[in-house]
Amino acid sequence: MKIGHDIDIGHIHTLEYIEHHAPRVPIPDIHGVLQQPNSNRIFVLMSRAPGEPLDSKWKFLGENEKSSIREQLDTIVGYFRFLPAPVSDETRAVLGGGSPRRCKDARRQVRVAQGCISNEREFNEFPISHPHRAQTGNISMIKSYLEDDHKDFLAHGDFHPRNMKVLARLKDPVADGALPKDSLYPTDDTVNKSTTPVTITEILDWEMCGWYPEYWEYVKALNTITPGSDLDDWWAYLPEKIGIWPREHAIDLMLSRWHG
Prior knowledge:
The protein has 260 residues and is of the alpha+beta class. It is built from 7 helices and 10 strands. The strands form 4 sheets. The protein has a 3-stranded antiparallel β-sheet, with no helix packed on it. This is Aminoglycoside phosphotransferase domain-containing protein.
């Protein structure tokens, strides 16, 4: 069950589409949605796969295990990335997700486009608009860098290790002699990082999913990765099918600084 205030349940429409057309994508089964009377508190009833968040395991994994994660994610992305967008009830609503179909942009806060967006040129106006930011020469410069000839693909929109569940079987460091027998918890220095089978069991939190320019999955996968953290090599293990978009990533970082 997922519980929260103002949960955007519009994405469930897109999840159902993915489940129907790409049933091999490991996503939760949604069993129902309840809203507390006279409140914006929402309960989403869903299935729960075994495992733990990938971000909690990442620092214990070696290169082989991280490469295995990358290969598994590449297969999963291949199941859903190239699904065509279904025809929307609103003819101009081409990009975005949910019902009604709208574009979203998560930085410090999640912003939702007010209306339909039908192409990348219109989409480019969305991240460079902000009710509390002045249209300075700097944002005009950033706007001049934006291109409008990317293909559109289905993106999860928040492809971060915290939104992935894995089953990881760590090698027993006590039995292996790496820790004394009275140790209860391995440390970063004593865990054997080369013998850890890891399996992805579920991709969670699809609230930001939708059809976006092809670079979107890449830049949003790196959106909240802090340099020097346990995840600062996450960029090196992103699935191949989402591509590598250094120019677009640099522009997105400039946009994030402008948004503040």
